[in-house]
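Onboarding guide, step 5: your first structure request.
Type a short instruction followed by the sequence, for example:

Predict the 3D structure of this protein.
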Amino acid sequence: MNDRSGFRRVAFWIGGRLTWLSDWALGEPVAGPSSLVERILMMVIIVAGAFAGLSRFTAGTIDTLWAEDGAVFMTGAYARPWFADVLLPYNGYAHVYPRTIASVITAVVNLADVPIAVATAACVTTALVAAVVFWTLRARIPQWPIRFVLAAMIVSLPLASIEVNGSIANDHWYLMVALFAVLISRQRNVAGRVVAAVVIVFAVLSDPLTLLFAPLVVLRFFDRGPRSRWIVPGAFVVAAIVQVIVVRSTTLTPSSPFSIGGLLRSLAFRVYLEGLVGHYLAVDLYARTGYVALILAAVAVLAIATIAVLARTRGFVIVAFVAATGFFMVAVALRWTGDMDPIGGIPDGGTRYQLVPICLLLMGFACTVSALVRSPRAALRATTLAASGLVIIAVSFSAAIGWRTTDRDGPWQLANAQRECTVPHPPQDVLVIGSPSGFPLVIACSTVRSNMTAAGH
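The system replies with structure tokens like these:
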């Protein structure tokens, strides 16, 4: 009996500490429904954010399918029904979201319009993620102007112009940004928890790196509230189990060996320095000062985290900064290549690994600014707003330089495929060359001809 009583005391003590940690990390639930202004701004974020993504393209870069968009996801959607295609692994894991989007596009869009439809769907996804961040962080950042700027920065990240913008194959990086936002916040009602669950399911079933956020899910199990609070962690657990089953059914490609020094340099440059000043300004600073720029960037991030603690932002900023650092180091270590180390040069590729941690840093910055501008000290408020303005100007300047998505060659070669499929003895399947040329869409000639007939050709 004494042993059982001691065990219960230890269990209650651990449970109490985890409940305290949950309150510290997750904060308070949103006090009330969003205002009319906030609802209007959410619509503005969705519409303007999608348009901003599409405006990055030129006529020559939007009329093509980028890499796996065509070669994997659209090819699969044309070859198989959704239920047979949705959980097929690629690169070692499930990609439910892009496969679902591809299936919808094949059902409602003519083949000739597929590249524009794919780019539009991806840009709308980015805008929806920014809207989710704007909506779900209301309790952490009560001032809607700060959240609106945060959402605008998410949809206009300079680094997103390379690889990520307008690509459903890379939507999972944005989904992980939304995943963090819904896991670190307490939803007010059942509807909010259902929306969070939808975000979680699509994110987790599209990239196993989402499992790095499992500690936040553990804290959700110790959250206090109605029974519907189980919707959020329950959705994560179910989706994670399915993703793990898919991953275990495949053979993963081993990563290249990495050095701790190279990993730390990559973190300091690609996350801290670029997160503060944007890609192109970071390249210039590193070229001029080398390690000095990296050290100052790391010190600046540490200083912001310290200010956040002193400003009593509870655990949000610390969790965001730790998650950004940990996520990048694990993701890059698992998929390490030598060009991730800035000491060997700074190529434009690989920017997708930076998107999640930089967005998490931006959330932490925004929360810190929110806490400081609420300070009763006028001088502190003025200094905070001035410093925030300088950061926004620096990132915006960098965005203006690197705004365009120019890494794609178009238009795609659909006309060639149509000619091949209308000869007397056409092949069963035909390749539609996209960008890069090594990633073609593979589609049946019967599908090409039926789309031509539907379009009146």
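Each response can be followed by summary notes, for example: The chain has 20 helices and two strands.
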